[in-house]
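S1.2 Input.
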Amino acid sequence: MFHGSTYLSRWAGAFTVLLSILSGTGTLRAETAGKEPFGLLVMAHGGSKEWNQSVLDAVEHLQAPYPVAVAFGMADACSIQNEVRALEEQGAQKVGVVRLFVSGESWYERTEQILGLRAGAPSAAQEAAACEGGGHAAHHHSMALFRIDSRASFALSKQGLAEAPEIGAILVDRAGSLSREPKKEDILVLAHGPGDDDENRRWLAHMEARVAELRTSRPYHDVAVMTLREDWPEKRKSAQEQVRAFVSRSSKEGRRVIVLPFRLSGFGPYAEALAGLDYQADRSGFLPHGNVTRWIARQAEELRTGPFRTAHPDRPNPQEEP
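S1.3 Output.
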């Protein structure tokens, strides 16, 4: 069922909740339960029509006994306001927010501000004009910052995909589909990366943990993790030189290079960054893969138990609820 930019909003019937994941299919199946005042908001970066659809397809497999909404945008208050309102219209009083970002640090404080759980965002009344003209549409984000108008309470996920154990199997599958002679192959796992150097080191540490399963899956000659620092020109220049040097050296030494994008969907700017070099890639990102749906489901189930926080206009300090 569609509701504006909401892709999934569904209530199930009146039975006991049983979420189970069908092994190997990536599909979530739910034996439905009586209506509960919980709703799920999935936040995603947003991009091209194809990028957005890959996220919607992953969420579609989430056969949940509560309403589900997708808010595209890098913590865009307009999109979040619309989707929270859609959840509330279906009875949600407590909202779990799964932040579908590579890094759990991305937009966390901003999301708290938008939900009224942290100071720093003006009221929705002051910023209502920011959402005019379709700024909340899935393919066009206003990046508005204001505190949404909601009496719901919220629980936010803190784990990013870079910290998710489910990602290891995706990397194994992606590399395995391209591998021919592992001992003569080098794998480069390449991510967006942040601007802050300390945060970038945390990205790389999380990525190293995720490739552990890849390293033991086949006897690859080498598995390396790097970030391109995509949005910071000076830092990108140095990072791109290192990336290209790795691929070039491996090729000159007679090894086949496989590039795996460590991002939710697509290949990003990597074709441009690697132009003229010899490498293999399927350019898929983490999607499509059932483990992304599994991760969303796990996050949602953890959030359903709370604690939930609320910051109503008459209660300016966030309150914690069970």
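S1.4 Remarks. The longest helix spans residues 233-252.
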